[in-house]
Amino acid sequence: MILTAHQNCIAxxxxxxxxxxxxxxxxxxxxxxxxxxxxSEGYHRIEQRTYGKYLGEDEAATLANLQAEVExxxxxxxxxxxxxxxxxxxxxxxxxxxxxxxxxxNSNIDKMNLGFVAVLASPETMEAADI
Length: 131
Fold this sequence. Notes:
By secondary structure, the protein is an all-alpha fold. It has helices at residues 5-49, 59-120, 123-130. It contains 3 helices and no strands. It is rod-shaped.
């Protein structure tokens, strides 16, 4: 089959366009493979670090589980902050009670010491010491 100059020109243009599309598709295919590889590595890294806690039936389900967990983080953070505030208030209250109890103990020790001084300084104790 003999092609005319015009047909030959169209055929060359078609081959060039086809070759360019093949090269572009090969590049897109390589890019897709790289993205798939990186996604797979990241997916497995997450699975290893979370010990499969968020593992779903497939990658989409796992990502949905992770998304739900990320969205719940704000509420969990608020709950933890409230817990810490409650614990701090409890510790503060316990220290106030301890301080009050120590003050009571010191007061009782002072009273007891005054009682000892009174007993030691009483006339009966003085006479017994002269014997």
